[in-house]
């Protein structure tokens, strides 16, 4: 049982849409729950620049504690970028996850949907345990998404079809490296084992059929059955790029979402990530089925996928959340910058009214918490004690106090460096950007030491990867993903 703790601030935004703003507040929490939120008559000097906000939720990520640029993978079209990420050398999964979660915590992210990378079932179970420990050590809430896939490892087509399109020498090399795909039974058994982990308030499990293009009908049926049996959420990629759109339309003439509905996956426990190429009609269907869409603005820009139809999602009243996808604009996991970029891209032209700042903040807090399978997103008695203390001192120096509009100021200027502290489940996770649960400097140094012995091999493999990239690019240009 934790002691009762009180935090004071000059301002509090207890919820974002509709906005609820208070001046001079005192928040008391105990045992991970907010007990009171009440006015405070006297504002102390230490709290006069403080704003209390609900903590942010990163609704789609891959926990890349070692960024892809750190092992030589530059931004490019997602279809070849993903293949480049497979060159990541074997590194302690705890170090990678702990560094990723620490970076997020520094930026006020209190919960994350962590889509783990595909692994053989036995190794996946071991890595899930490492991620769980990292979550608990750092102190943020993690929804561990169990990756499930059984086809189309090279492109949106059968592996043999893709290999046949490559030069013989390249095809031979790539083909020899492809290991047998684990059986559906083995993958489902691993998912069931991970779901039986001791799920704490910081660690939950979701099922992650990676995407329809990577999952056979029998696998998706088994996922649907297991999700209903265990009563857990499902999280999957959907319509991220134009080539995925083309493949989906070619493969499912009656509609890819209608197909998911037939399988039993289109419901309130599903989150789809990206949705960059959704149509207005599909946005409405998702709204009707109460599906959450996690949009990933910076990732879609960096990987040349496009811009999500957020106005259509909003008009349909589809629940949308914000994900960093481990590819924030500046590679820094700064969700406040992501919120700003998303708002500016979708705010509308001229006098049009597009997506508002409260819309996006609500998505990054309340809707994101829903995607992680947690309550939250509001500061009120009975809600989880998940909040950030944001300090305005750096960004308000040139503005007379009488002219400061707090939500607008935060929307226009605040970044992760303005997060003074993060509290999750009543535990102080960061204080002045220092992670209290782990020594991030030690973890970062260990990661750098771990990658160094592989540098030569990574450099030597660049020429072969460039041949592979060109071959895959030509495969799509020739419409290979539309012919089986």
Detailed description of the structure:
This protein has 484 residues and is α/β, with parallel strands linked by helices. It has one domain (56-378, 451-482): Metal-dependent hydrolases (TIM Barrel, Alpha-Beta Barrel), CATH 3.20.20.140. The protein has 18 helices and 16 strands. The strands form 3 sheets. Strands 3-2-1-4-13-14-15-16 form an 8-stranded mixed beta sheet. Strands 5-6-7-8 form a 4-stranded parallel beta sheet. Strands 9-10-11-12 form a 4-stranded parallel beta sheet. α2 (93-106) packs across α16 and α3 runs parallel beside α6 (184-195). The mean pLDDT is 94.
Write a brief caption for the model.
The chain is an alpha/beta fold and 484 residues long.
Features:
TIM Barrel, 484 residues, single chain, alpha/beta, 21% strand, eight-stranded mixed sheet, four-stranded parallel sheet, 39% helix
CATH architecture: Alpha-Beta Barrel
What characteristic shape results from the CA principal axes? Answer: globular
Uncertain residue segments: none
The CATH superfamily is known as Metal-dependent hydrolases
Tell me the CATH topology. TIM Barrel
Protein structure class: alpha/beta
Distance between the termini: 60 Å
In helices, the fraction of residues equals: 25-40%
For the biggest β-sheet, the strand order reads 3-2-1-4-13-14-15-16
CATH structural class: Alpha Beta
Instruction: Tell me the fraction of residues in β-strands, as a range.
Output: 15-25%
Q: What's the count of strands? A: 16
**Average pLDDT across residues?**
94
Radius of gyration: 23 Å
The biggest beta sheet reads:
8 strands, mixed
Secondary structure tally, helices? 18
């Amino acid at each position: 049982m934790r002691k009762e703790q009180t935090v004071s601030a000059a301002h509090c935004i207890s919820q974002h849409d509709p906005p609820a703003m208070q001046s001079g507040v005192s928040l008391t929490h105990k045992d991970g729950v907010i007990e009171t939120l009440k006015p405070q008559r006297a504002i102390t000097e230490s709290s006069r620049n403080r704003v209390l906000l609900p903590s942010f939720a990163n609704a789609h990520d891959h926990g890349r504690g070692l960024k892809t640029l750190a092992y030589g993978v530059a931004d490019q079209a997602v279809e070849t970028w993903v293949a480049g990420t497979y060159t990541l050398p074997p590194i302690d999964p705890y170090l990678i996850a702990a560094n990723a979660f620490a970076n997020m915590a520094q930026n006020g992210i209190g919960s994350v949907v962590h889509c783990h990378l595909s692994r053989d079932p036995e190794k996946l179970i071991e890595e899930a345990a490492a991620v769980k420990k990292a979550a608990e050590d750092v102190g943020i809430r993690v929804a561990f998404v169990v990756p499930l896939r059984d086809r189309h490892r090279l492109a949106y087509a059968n592996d043999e079809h893709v290999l046949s399109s490559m030069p013989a020498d390249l095809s031979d090399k790539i083909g020899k490296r492809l290991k047998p795909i684990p059986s559906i039974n083995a993958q489902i058994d691993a998912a069931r084992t991970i779901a039986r982990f001791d799920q704490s308030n910081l660690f939950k499990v979701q099922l992650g059929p990676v995407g329809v293009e990577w999952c056979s009908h029998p696998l998706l049926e088994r996922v649907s059955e297991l999700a209903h049996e265990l009563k857990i959420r499902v999280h999957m990629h959907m319509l991220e790029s134009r080539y995925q759109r083309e493949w989906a339309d070619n493969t499912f003439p009656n509609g890819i979402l209608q197909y998911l509905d037939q399988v039993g996956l289109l419901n309130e426990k599903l989150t789809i990530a990206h949705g960059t190429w959704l149509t207005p009609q599909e946005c409405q269907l998702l709204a009707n089925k109460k599906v959450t869409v996690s949009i990933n603005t910076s990732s879609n820009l960096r990987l040349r996928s496009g811009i999500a139809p957020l106005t259509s999602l909003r008009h349909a009243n589809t629940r949308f959340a914000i994900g960093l996808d481990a590819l924030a604009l500046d590679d820094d996991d700064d969700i406040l910058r992501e919120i700003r970029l998303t708002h500016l891209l979708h705010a509308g032209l001229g006098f049009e009214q597009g997506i508002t700042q409260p819309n996006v903040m609500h998505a990054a807090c309340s809707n994101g918490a829903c995607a992680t399978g947690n309550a939250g997103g509001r500061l009120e008695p009975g809600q989880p004690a998940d909040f950030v203390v944001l300090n305005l001192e750096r960004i308000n120096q040139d503005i007379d106090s009488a002219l400061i509009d707090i939500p607008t100021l935060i929307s226009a200027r605040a970044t992760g460096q303005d997060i003074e502290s993060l509290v999750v489940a009543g535990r102080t996770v960061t204080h002045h950007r220092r992670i209290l649960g782990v020594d991030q400097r030690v973890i970062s140094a260990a990661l750098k030491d771990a990658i160094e012995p592989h540098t030569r091999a990574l450099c030597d493999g660049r020429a072969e990867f460039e041949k592979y990239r060109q071959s895959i690019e030509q495969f799509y240009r020739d419409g290979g993903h539309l012919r089986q």
